[in-house]
Amino acid sequence: MLGAFALACGAAAAWAQVTDDPAKPVLRSTLAATTTTPPAPAPRATDATTPGTIRYLSPPGIGAGPTGFISTGFDPRRARKAKKSVTTRPAVPAPAAAATTTEARANPDLTGAIAPVRRPPRRLEDEEPFGPAGIPFGSFTLRSILDLSAGYDTNALRTPGGPGSWFTVVAPQFSLRSNWARHELNAELRGSYSSYYDVSANNRPEAYANIRGRIDVSTLTRLEIEGRAALTTESPGSPDAVSTAVRPPNVYSYGSTIGVMQRFNRFELALRGLVDRYTYENAMLTSGAIFDLSDRNYVAPGLRLRGSYELSEGIKPFVEIGVDRRMFDREIDFTGIRRGSDGWLVRGGFAFERKGFLTGEVSAGYLQRRYRDPSLPEISGLIFDSSLVWTATPLTKVTLYAVSTIDETMVPSASGLFRHEARITVEHAFRRWLLGSVSLGYGIEDYRGSGLVDHRLRASASLTYYFNRMLALRGELRHERLRSDLPGQDYTANVALLGLRLQR
Length: 504
Description:
Shape: globular
Largest sheet: 18 strands, antiparallel, barrel
Distance between the termini: 94 Å
Low-confidence stretches: 1-58, 61-66, 85-106, 108-114, 119-125
Oligomer: single chain
């Protein structure tokens, strides 16, 4: 037992002599991979605080051979593959200062240098930097606008030599947009109320509502559903307006459209069915009597078939045909005339879907409407329709709008109102927060059968200054002029408007 104790003490003394002599080799941290090529001794480091102690740079591994388990997580096979994939380039000597800077940027923890600030990726420019930001509402985005304006109208009643009046306008708008990856649902509601201080008979409301949805049945088939409603009044100075009414009577309209679209490679075929209903409110006369307008109420069902071909990306020529019928609640009106009619149209044009450059469509065609009463002549002629937006530059946008329709009228001996109207609007951003707009419109209203033709000219210019994304100041000047074939009906009106816009 004493011999074993002496043997242990001798071994401890020998170990102390080995570790105290830095020139002598120490035990390696891993076993040799093979017996013929022993690995080089592991590096050692001397701690400055405790002389003579050895501090290894990494903990020792466990295993025998290159295929064994290494506790450090180091895989020599991955290291060899990474080393082969890296293409080495000849080193270029660099100045000492540059080398120090490069090292500091590469690993600031080793040098103590301040790491450079990493900036986030630059955001894309907003198409409308001062447009309504919107409020998230589930999977929808809700945007709202409120315009509060006041101004002066030199001819509020739109009659020859009519009186002028100060007025105010309250105009709210709401829009709801879906954020779905598939299908789509959008809704819009806007309205206004104009109140005239000196001509209260011209106070009138206006409102428009529209909801549109799309169901993607498949990549080649989709369904479209639309509902719409509107509240308007007869235009001041119109031949159909009740001149002795206390205020213009309201006109209500509502309808819907259901369509199915099928795509065959580049060719697309769309079939839509639509129906609209128009009702007129009775007019209250200055004498206190009620003027019945129920003989103007009617319903108009119709059908549209459209075929288009994708000629190139964003350009689709199309051809469309349509038929409709107008059925009045009173088959014979108060004057003894049957106002019912049937109509058809054919048109062709181009649809553009190049966002940021050209969107919308432009078309031309032929329209005809025949009336059931033999005393009413048919209406037919060329039509031109357009709803085109051209982004000329990132700061300038041009909108071309044109429409040709046949509206109903109660003018004696007139079968209908053949209306052609065109308008061009140019919007320019002088600054991101300063937007200008000019508009010029011209319209022809032909009361077929009566010999009455009106020519209307409208011009306007506006300027909008945005304080921020929620508040803006807006000013507008308008000029309206009517030239009629009927003597004594011409008039001119000028309007100046200033107001605030609140949006979210």
